[in-house]
């Protein structure tokens, strides 16, 4: 019965079009492989219409302890719709080549429960489309743990350097602005 209701709700959403379901912004077109999983993350399906904090991460970076603060932000604002997306990258040569070790750092060492992808290229010509779009809107990440706050329409509200800790007041203000944005 529940599966039928879910299917019916999806069918109604598809028939009603954008007035019922959030449209997918260009920023979220595509899929990324999920860390320590066989499935991929359909960015539109998972994040469209939601406020989002996107962070490029690296296991061996001196900023890796920020995982704890990012997890705290996620838990604090999750009920208000906030999603956090961690995208490990070796662009700055501080990520392990073995994604199992990356997963261990995230999930075991820091207790991350927000969405994490397999390591990706986030800078330059080879950057994944998500980070190309972020760079066009706000500039490329200059180091690991660069933070992008994205509103419900897929627009970057603010970006923050690696040195900006997750408990920073300006970061929190940007998150609250993204949360209060209309889908």
TrEMBL record:
The keyword Ribosomal protein does not apply. Keywords: Oxidoreductase, Peroxidase, Signal. One of its GO terms (biological process) is cellular response to oxidative stress. CDD domains: GSH_Peroxidase (cd00340). PROSITE patterns: GLUTATHIONE_PEROXID_1, GLUTATHIONE_PEROXID_3, THIOREDOXIN_2. GO terms for molecular function: peroxidase activity. Residues 11-180 form the Thioredoxin domain. The active site is at 61. Gene3D superfamilies: Glutaredoxin (3.40.30.10). Residues 1-21 form the signal peptide. Belongs to the glutathione peroxidase family. This is Glutathione peroxidase. It comes from Zestomonas carbonaria. The lineage of its organism: Bacteria, Pseudomonadati, Pseudomonadota, Gammaproteobacteria, Pseudomonadales.
